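Predict the structure of Helix-turn-helix transcriptional regulator.
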Amino acid sequence: MKVNNIQSCHLGPEISPENYIPENYFLYLLRGDMKAYDGEKNYSMKPGDYCIARKNHLVRYTKYKDNDEFEKIIITLDEEFLKRFLERHVYEIRPSAIGDSFIFIPENRLIKNFITSLEPYYTGDLEISADFVDVKREELLIILLKSNPDLIHILFNFSLPDRINLKEYMNKNFRFNISLQKFAFFTGRSLSTFKRDFQRVFGMAPGTWLKKKRLQEAYFLIAEQSRKPSDVYLEVGFEDLSHFSFAFKKEFGKTPNEIAKPVSNRIQ
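Done. Here is the predicted structure for Helix-turn-helix transcriptional regulator.
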C-alpha cells in the first residue's frame, strides 16, 4: 500500500533509541527497509509491512534508505495507555507462549483504512491534538485485536520479567550495549542479586566477563571472518572505536588492525 502524502510520524510517547524496547509499539514502514536482530532471530521489514515491536525485548536495528528517504509510522502502545484502555474494554488475559520480538500483522482493509485516515493530519503544518492522538491509538488497538486476538495476551501483560537462566541469557545477549541494571531487570533480578548470581555462575564480575566476551567475539569476527574492525566494534557492544582498539590490544597484545587479514586475502 502506498500513502503518498504521509511522511514519518509518531503518535504517543517517544521511543528510546537504545538497544531495548521499553514499550510496545506499532510500526508501519512507508519508505526504505529495516532489518533487526534480537540476539537469536533476524527480522526484515519492507515498505507496506505492519508489525508490533514488543516491550522488554533487546533488538539492534539497521535502516536502509530509499533515495535518501526512510519514512515510517510509529504508534506507541505504552503501559499507561493500555491500562486506560482496559478500564473501558474487558478481555480475558492469559500467558502467551509467543517469544518473537516482532509480530507481523497481515494486511487487511481495516488497517489500510486506518493508515489512510492519518493522511490529512500529516500534510503541511497541521498537528494532531493530544486528545485526538489517544482516539486514533484506541481505534488502531481495536483493529489490531480484531485482526489478531492473540495480541490481547501480549499487549496487556504488565508483569515484570520472570527470573530466567542467567548463563543462557547472557551468552545470547552479551553483544547488546545496555547497563547492568537492564541486564538484571531482563533476567528477573535486582542488581545486587544479578551481580551475586553472575559471580557464582561465571566466576567473575559481570563487567569483566562482558568485556572479555565481547573482545573474544570481535577477535573471531576479525581474524576468522575477515571483518573490518570499524564494522565490528559496535556489533559486539562497544561505543567507541578507540576504546575498543585500546581494550583489544590490552587483551590480546595486538591491535585489531594487526590481526586483520590483508585485503587481498579476505574472502570475496
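The chain has two domains: 9-155, 166-265.
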